[in-house]
Design a protein that fits this description.
Length: about 160
């Protein structure tokens, strides 16, 4: 696990290393796909009590987060934290019933390339209150790390 003096990349690697190998591989592969899909987005990283989250944002403000990759011991999901409840869902793929957030469970990184999921990603970008920068390259910012966390590996 990384320390606050480690680079963001090393800290992220430490956070992901807490997961089972299969879950860690899924997180890494989904992150690669999302980083390629949103190259100008800022990655806001949270290693919180319940979830490890990487938000893809137009700015350093969490409220500008368009989508998030969220991982826990029970799986990995693609979250639409601020617009999920407003997204059209003709394929009925969104899960959750909160006032804002909806999510899709990710069985593999290939799920992100499915047409119905791509429609959701495009719709989320369209609903973003702050658009992603048209050019440039995003960076990774470690937002918060909780001292106390639920286990990141499945309990036997």
């Amino acid at each position: 696990m990384g320390t606050k003096t480690d680079s963001p990349a090393k800290q992220v690697a430490g956070f992901i290393a807490k997961f089972d190998p299969a879950a860690a591989k899924l997180i890494w592969s989904c992150r690669r796909v999302l980083r390629k899909r949103f190259p100008t987005a800022i990655e806001l990283v949270y290693d919180n009590y319940n979830f490890f989250v990487i938000g893809y944002c137009a700015s350093e403000r969490p409220s500008d987060c368009i989508i998030s990759l969220a991982a826990a011991a029970n799986g990995v999901g693609l979250s639409f934290p601020y617009c999920g409840a407003r997204l059209p869902d003709p394929h009925k793929i969104l899960l959750g019933s909160g006032t804002q957030n909806r999510f899709i469970r990710l069985k593999s990184a290939a799920t992100l390339a499915e047409p119905a999921v791509e429609e959701m990603l495009q719709a989320a970008v369209g609903l973003a209150k702050t658009p992603l920068p048209a050019s440039g390259r995003g960076c990774t910012i470690i937002q918060s790390v909780s001292a106390k966390q639920r286990p990141r590996r499945r309990q036997s």
